[in-house]
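In response to reviewer comment 3 from the previous cycle, which asked for concrete evidence that the modeling workflow produces usable outputs, we include below a single protein chain processed end to end. The sequence was submitted unchanged, and the resulting structure tokens are shown without manual editing.
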Amino acid sequence: MTKRWLALLLSAFVLTGCASVGLDSSGSGSDGQSSGSAISPPDCSSSEAEWDESSGVLVDWSRLKDRQSRQPDVDGGRWYPDRTDVLIPGRNYGPLIPYIGDQAYMFNRWEYAGEVQEYWSDWPNSFYGLMTRDGEIVVDPVYQSVGYCAYGKEGSLPILLLSKSGPAWEEFGNGSRYAVAAIDGSWITDFEFINYTNRGNQLFLLRPEGCTVLDSAIGEREDWSWEELGVSEEDLPETLSFLQWVTGLTWLDQGVYLGQKDEMGSGVNWEEAQARVFQPETGQIYWIEQGQWDQWCKEDADRRWREPEVVTGQDGQMVITVDGQSYPLEDTGPDFWLYVLRGDFVIVYPQDGEIEYLYRLSSGERILEGKSLHLITDLFRPEVVLPAAYEQGVWTVYNDRMESLFTLQSTRQDQWIRFSLQDGLLSLHDDSTFFGCYDLDQGEYVFFRNLGLGD
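The workflow returned the following structure tokens.
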């Protein structure tokens, strides 16, 4: 098996880069009460920055003004009076929100062929913490990443996937380990997992010692050792590497894929290799040809991710058909492409233009155009969709009636903003300068951090 996938592994190293995250917060207050004053979004009345190239040097003079009037740091105080680098299980936090609290550049040094090699990351790596809905800091920024586990197109599971890295974990994987926590912080596992996948609300997690099935709703788990799964201690390093770097971890109706039988030197090709499949429901292992498993994966992907809409042309207009209902879009033509469809909103763009157009699907009416448009979907309520638009140096987020909810002035020409939404709390950050959480109902930031690495 080694020879068959070694070439794939080497090519993956060439095509992929490094990514990590992490730093420290300066949350104020010690009694759990709000210590930051509520503020409104920045004033967006100024025009887009003019970029003066007359001297041959690209200069944005508006950055000097931005330094004097930048958004101050805000938070809701601290849940615990002292710095907290672990999630202490509790039932009173409410839903926990990840935040970026600080950043740092990654440096690595190693020796190759007798010469010392050095690498500096071009972009800062973020460190994540956890806070309450009101901006109270529960965990300081100690995590390499904090993520959600998507449940198809139905939203996300009620858990957080936390990661850390350390030299003790370099034997298997990339030196990182995951822990799983309830989104309300009521339970958390150890940092013991190197990979994960899910089927419905059940998580399947890979450990150096074996595998685990975990119920995302209540945190109950069942563990199996590698010996129980038919993997010897001698074969374990190669099996884990194969699952990490070649095939990934996949859970289908037929079971969980756990690598191939070692048939090195037998001349067996990829499709005929024997694949190990584990059925967590019964605890049974069975073997099939790799080609059969690959076919099951394709059928599963087609079934779960097949787009429900069909795009056609009629009378010179773009027509989008969803669940048998056709919706013609006004002022479109055969040269328009569908970008994204969420709920009753759809974004399209012409092949030869730089402007994107927002339509209301039910009426076919064009309601907005801009240089960059987005549709922000609530992580846990996917029926809630908010349009966002960038135009003339200003980001604007709208409700479903196209009323402005939030505006943000860009501080530089190439600045991108990443948005996420969770129950009315809008999280936003750029590539290196800030992270904020804005309460759309209250009209104020509950959390804001200037990260300080933008220049």
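The two ends are 48 Å apart (CA to CA). We consider this sufficient to address the reviewer's concern, and the full set will be provided in the supplementary archive.
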